[in-house]
Write a sequence for this structure.
């Protein structure tokens, strides 16, 4: 089968790989029909995530058709088209039983902190991902959900990560009616977080980024205010001025390790890897939230430390909430929102490319070329 | 607060009880705290395991087992805890070594990697010609100056 193959920082190609096999009674083999490139794939693509091995296949956002089932799988049958959550969860461990499906204890031997994630380095379990014609899906009775009526494949593939992560970013913000919410980052997750903030009753939603076309998209898609931080001398000060000088009730970091602009964070976090990525957005979130406010983090950072103003967290009495999205917990509700037209995920998709053009697809997404918001890869296997 | 009726779904999921401890507050009873362990996937390839875990997880990925020089470095790294720089820095170093191993493997198979295609230069050229030209000019200048400086020293 053909699959994306990582060769080193900013180098990927399509290559023939052996077909995945059933390795566990609860495994399924899924033929991929849609697979996205996620913003967090760029951390892998840029070589920022430790233990990203040459030969790995990325891709944790995919939907596909069940082709083969392990003897222990009861809830699926061959031919089902399924939404596969990006996190691999057993459904039985103490964390899964608390619906913390992004924190499963039984899916990643390489780390006690990180759960299992498809195609996300050996730090997240060493699984091959869905930017391929076929993929092995462990715990097939737990995560995969049949694509329901009224949900097309382009909507479905964004329900594997983008929609749940954006939604959980807003949920973790503990947004109360009338709250002012500031979202850092106008990538797909930030845009979705802004959209979902309204569902929790936000009174005002502001998105901060520096890419004009993305800000314009966010303004139209999520009906929010947008500001380009390059036009602000000091983004924190500017946000405070926008929010009665007290700061926002809730700040969401939807950027993570690839944050731009701040020279110190860029050099130490992205170039020298002395930090677990550039924490500019997180620093701004902490500094521009009001006293007693909530900072919600869904941006991805590496496993080592970051320079962030912990003193301000203490002095301002901020609550910091963060997690990988618990996709399975949220899917039923989010599918209804899509069916009812409250969320329209596929409007985020700007580029559809054949899997064979994966190298160009990464370049387009990574460099924000051709006004790209979200890229979907379409494998040709039938 | 101004009227938000124009926003479809506004307030539909509002939850006054969404306090900062959620979802940790959904703690199980003490008797349920242990959970269950699913059936173990057989280990058919070398899998490095965190020293902070009691054992392998019930399932795991089997892609790209450690091998070569990078594999040796990774094995060393996994002797240390997850918070240690002696864990993460060797892993990053191993990744860089692994890239060179990948190029050597390609050459051994008789094909030098098409690095320009792998870096998506076709897309860069299509959508960002100016950027590509700037990079080429800058690289040429740096190379020229470096060569001149080195030849001047001789």
């Amino acid at each position: 089968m053909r699959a994306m193959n990582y060769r080193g920082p900013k180098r990927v190609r399509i290559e023939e790989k052996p077909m995945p096999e059933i390795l566990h009674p609860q495994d399924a083999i899924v033929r991929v029909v849609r697979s996205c490139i996620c913003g967090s794939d760029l951390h892998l693509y840029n070589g920022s995530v430790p233990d990203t091995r040459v030969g790995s296949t990325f891709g944790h956002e995919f939907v596909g058709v069940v082709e083969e089932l392990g003897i222990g799988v009861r809830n699926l049958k061959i031919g089902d088209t399924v939404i596969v959550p990006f996190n691999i969860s057993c459904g039985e461990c103490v964390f899964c039983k608390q619906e913390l499906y992004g924190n499963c204890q039984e899916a990643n031997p390489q780390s006690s902190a990180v759960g299992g994630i498809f195609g996300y380095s050996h730090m997240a379990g060493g699984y091959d991902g869905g930017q391929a014609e076929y993929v092995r899906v462990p715990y097939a009775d737990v995560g995969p959900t049949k694509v329901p009526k009224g949900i097309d494949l382009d909507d479905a593939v964004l329900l594997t990560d983008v929609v749940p992560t954006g939604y959980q970013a807003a949920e973790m913000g503990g947004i109360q009616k009338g709250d002012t919410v500031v979202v850092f980052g106008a990538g797909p997750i930030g845009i979705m977080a802004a959209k979902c903030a309204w569902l929790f009753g936000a009174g005002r939603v502001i998105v901060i980024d520096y890419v004009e076309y993305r800000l314009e998209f966010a303004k139209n898609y999520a009906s929010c205010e947008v500001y380009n931080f390059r036009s602000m001398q000091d983004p924190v000060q500017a946000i405070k001025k926008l929010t009665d000088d007290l700061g926002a009730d809730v700040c969401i970091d939807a950027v993570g390790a690839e944050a731009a602009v701040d020279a110190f964070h860029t050099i130490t976090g992205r170039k020298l890897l002395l930090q677990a990525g550039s924490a500019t957005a997180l620093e701004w979130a902490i500094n521009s939230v009001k006293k007693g406010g909530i900072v919600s983090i869904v941006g991805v950072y590496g496993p080592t430390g970051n320079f962030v103003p912990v003193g301000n967290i203490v002095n301002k009495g901020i609550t910091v909430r963060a997690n990988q999205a618990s996709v399975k917990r949220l899917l039923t509700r989010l599918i209804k929102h899509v069916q009812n037209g409250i969320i329209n995920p596929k409007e985020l998709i700007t580029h559809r490319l054949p899997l064979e053009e994966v190298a160009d697809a990464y370049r387009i997404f990574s460099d924000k070329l051709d006004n790209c918001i979200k890229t979907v890869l379409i494998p040709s296997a039938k | 607060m101004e009227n938000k009726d124009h926003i479809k779904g506004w307030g539909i999921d509002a939850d006054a009880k969404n306090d900062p401890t959620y979802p940790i507050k959904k703690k199980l009873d003490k008797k349920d705290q242990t959970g269950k362990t699913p059936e173990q996937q057989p280990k058919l390839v070398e899998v490095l395991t965190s020293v902070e875990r009691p054992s392998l997880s019930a399932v795991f990925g089997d892609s790209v087992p450690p091998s070569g020089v990078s594999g040796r470095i990774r094995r060393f790294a996994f002797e240390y805890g997850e918070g240690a720089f002696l864990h993460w820095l060797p892993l990053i170093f191993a990744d860089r070594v692994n890239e060179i191993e990948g190029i050597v493997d390609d050459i051994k198979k008789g094909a030098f990697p098409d690095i320009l295609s792998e870096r998506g230069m076709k897309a860069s050229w299509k959508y960002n010609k100016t950027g590509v030209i700037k990079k080429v000019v800058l690289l040429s200048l740096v190379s020229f100056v470096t060569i001149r400086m080195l030849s001047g020293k001789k």
